[in-house]
Amino acid sequence: MYEKYKNAIVTGAARGIGKGIARKLAEKGINVVISDILIEDAEKTAAELAGLGVKTLAVKTDVSNKEDVEALVRKTVTEFGSLDFLVNNAGITRDNLSVRMSEDDWDKVLSINLKGAFLCSQAAAKEMMKQKFGRIVNIASVSGLLGTLGQGNYAASKAGLIALTKSMARELGRRNITVNAVAPGFIMTEMTETLSEQVKEDYMKQIPLKRAGTPDDIAESVCFLISPAGSYITGTTINVSGGLLI
Ligand code: NAP
Predict the structure, then answer these.
(1) Do 187 and 245 touch, CB atoms closer than 8 A?
(2) Nearest 5°: phi and psi at 171?
(3) Domains, the chain, ranges and CATH?
(4) Are the C-beta atoms of residues 205 and 197 closer than 8 Å to each other?
(5) Which residues line ligand 1 (CB under 6 A)?
(6) Which residues is 8 bridged to in the sheet?
(7) pLDDT tens-digit profile of 177-193?
(8) Model pTM?
């Protein structure tokens, strides 16, 4: 990791993949803001990770709300001194076949998964541009590459996020800010716990490595992208799915 750059925000970090990413960053000596709409869980996670010897802070944020996002970035810079890394992880599903999907479920998913990442990246980039350094990682999904049955809203949001990654990478490169995405496959978290045994079995059949992924698998790729080893990579999407896309 960098000597000089030590401060990160991870959105949706109270639990699941976001918590796994925040933990891995803290293990590497990075101060982490645990941003989540669930403040009690965010506070628990922040307290737990502070035990690893880094500074942590829990901030209640709805990533789809511009005022919340601006306050999140302001608070990070005030408390930690800078914002060097942003991981846009907050995301939701509201599954249904497209012909049955309500407009509300469409809007909600797009506004958290896509607009949320846009708002956070925009606010973070303004800080990163001043210091001519920044690393942004968007947590997309293989759904955004494949299209998935019953997930038109979710797949569109993640495909949009991959396109946003490429556009912002082009825009911010000259300021030494990289923007990349990680596309997880089937990862065991509360988001996937509720799927039926049949759906889980179907996934397993399609995964050459024959196991579900863990939040740690995703966190390792994020760490690579924000470390000096990943400094010449921008605008790319790493698929971390046990071979699901082969
Ligand atoms: P998760 O366990 O549901 O965690 C997501 C976190 O984001 C939750 O704490 C959630 O709070 C929070 N959140 C929801 N809406 C938010 C908002 N408006 N503002 C801020 N935080 C909000 O999900 P996960 O499985 O860890 O997924 C994390 C990311 O990975 C998501 O972007 C997801 O799309 C992506 N992903 C997951 C998988 C998988 O297999 N699990 C696969 C591909 C991609 P609430 O509990 O209140 O909703």
Answers:
(1) no
(2) -70, -35
(3) 7-239 (3.40.50.720)
(4) no
(5) 11-12, 14-18, 36-38, 61-64, 89-92, 112, 116, 139, 141, 184, 186-187, 189-192
(6) 32, 85
(7) 999 999 999 999 888 88
(8) 0.98
